[in-house]
Structure formats: C-alpha cells, structure tokens
Design goal:
- The chain has a single domain, classed as Hotdog Thioesterase (Thiol Ester Dehydrase, Chain A, Roll), CATH 3.10.129.10.
- The protein is built from 2 helices and 6 strands.
- A 6-stranded antiparallel beta sheet has the order 1-2-4-5-6-3, covered by helices on one side.
- A hairpin with a 4-residue loop joins strand 1 and strand 2.
C-alpha cells in the first residue's frame, strides 16, 4: 500500500502534481503531463490515458474523505466522456466527491487542456473499505 501523501507509480507515470486539495469538501485539483509516449495513431492523447487521469482525480478526491488513513478503496465503475481535442501537453483536472456513504462513494472529475477547454469528463463509483 502507498503511504498517505505519496503518489502511486501510476500517478507518477501520468505526471500528476497536486495543485490544491480540500478534505472537507472531498475536492482535488491536479495537473498531468501527456508527452509523446501518450499519443495514439491519430496524433492525439490516447483516451485510456485521459480515463486514467480522471480515475486518479476521482480516487484522490474520495481518499481525502476517509476517516482513517490507508483505508482501502477500489474503482468499481468509471464512465468517461471525451468532449474535446486532447493534444500532448499539460492537463489540469478537478475531482470531487458527489456522495459518500459508508462503503460506496460517487465522484466526478473534469479535465482541461492548456487553453482551458474541457477535453474529458468522468464519473466513478468506488468501493471504500474491505
């Protein structure tokens, strides 16, 4: 298990850097870097990487709401809507918890390109605890 406050190897691969977080609101804002190794045959960022960024935001926002450190969680479902052009570069995303129950959380996230245009939106259902 990754210690609280440290990023996972997957998040580091995505170039994740936390800009702002608020545990009380279950909110996180972070940037991601998509380089040449993120590009698909069409010259755009591969959608799977954008989905992973959204998953990271939803998961991070949910993790902020845990009452106990190192509470396990897993994404049960992730829906991604690709709504804009995603060229390589830096993306800034926001993630927030929409509802948190005892063992299930619902989170949403949005990802923007360097121009500030939304490129993808996501929603996730997460299982919290064992």
């Amino acid at each position: 298990m990754i210690p609280v406050g440290e990023e996972s190897p997957a998040a580091m691969t995505l170039g994740k850097r936390v800009i702002e977080s608020d545990a009380e609101r279950g909110y996180v804002k972070a940037s991601f870097v998509a380089g040449d190794n993120f590009i698909n045959r069409g010259g755009r960022v591969f959608g799977g990487f954008l989905s992973a960024m959204l998953d990271a935001l939803c998961g991070h926002a949910t993790r902020l709401t845990h009452r106990e450190a190192n509470t396990p969680q897993v994404t049960l479902e992730l829906k991604t809507s690709f709504v804009g052009r995603a060229d390589k570069g830096t993306f800034v995303g926001e993630g927030w918890v929409r509802h948190r129950g005892k063992s299930i959380a619902f989170a949403e996230a949005e990802l923007r390109n360097e121009a500030g245009d939304v490129v993808a939106r996501g929603s996730a259902t997460l299982k919290v605890g064992k």
